[in-house]
Task: structure prediction
Amino acid sequence: MTLDLFGDALDDPTDGLPAREPLGPGALLLRRFARPREAELLDAVDRVQAAAPLRHMVTPGGFRMSVAMTNCGALGWVSDLAGYRYDPIDPDSARPWPAMPEAFRRLATEAAAAAGFEDFEPDACLVNRYVPGTRLSLHQDRNERDMRQPIVSVSLGIPAMFQFGGDRRADRPARVPLGHGDVVVWGGPSRLRFHGVLPLKEASHRLLGESRINLTFRKAG
Ligand code: MD3
Ligand code: FE
Result:
């Protein structure tokens, strides 16, 4: 048995990397930022899921998304055969989405402030769940009203290889590994960059098992 001097570092190749790293103009990676709050965040994820179960939405083109999704906050991101939109009502329950947990809101505003966005007030949080094999193809986030507002993303659970593309779909994306607790603030010139997630590899996380949860905080309305 090897003496484990570095704890999680042995199975997380991003653990030795800097806590704060710009990924491009307006895009700031805050590695491990959410880790001190993992327990309250996962508690809140459970409460949101209990009120608005994860579901596989359908793209406007008729394809079932491999990512399972739900929302909290005043507005939720919805995809169906009619298109993409933000809706105050969960179409599966015909009720409003669950309120945004205070632990979510605080984390998002603190991360945004750390990146220079002092007055970020998210009204929508999209919860994405990945299991090994799940992917998210290259896309832009352009359903929000004010593109001057950033998006804050929080990764929990097993690692993912994020694709950070350019302003055009054909621009070759950079690969950015995202691990448990990593937070990224996407604003300014990065706000409309194409991005996606490669199929997740088999892995297991001590708290989340074989899954990854990604939270994206938006000012949608
Ligand atoms: C870069 N989610 O929900 S988070 C999405 O891991 C989405 O679930 C991915 O893309 C996930 O729309 C990626 C990172 C992210 C989120 C929004 C962005 C990167 C972004 C918006 C603009 C540029
Ligand atoms: Fe996106």
Summary: The first strand starts at residue 20 and ends at 24. Residues 167 and 193 are 5 Å apart (CA to CA). The longest helix spans residues 38-51. Residues 139, 141, 195 surround fe (iii) ion (ligand 2) (CB under 6 Å).
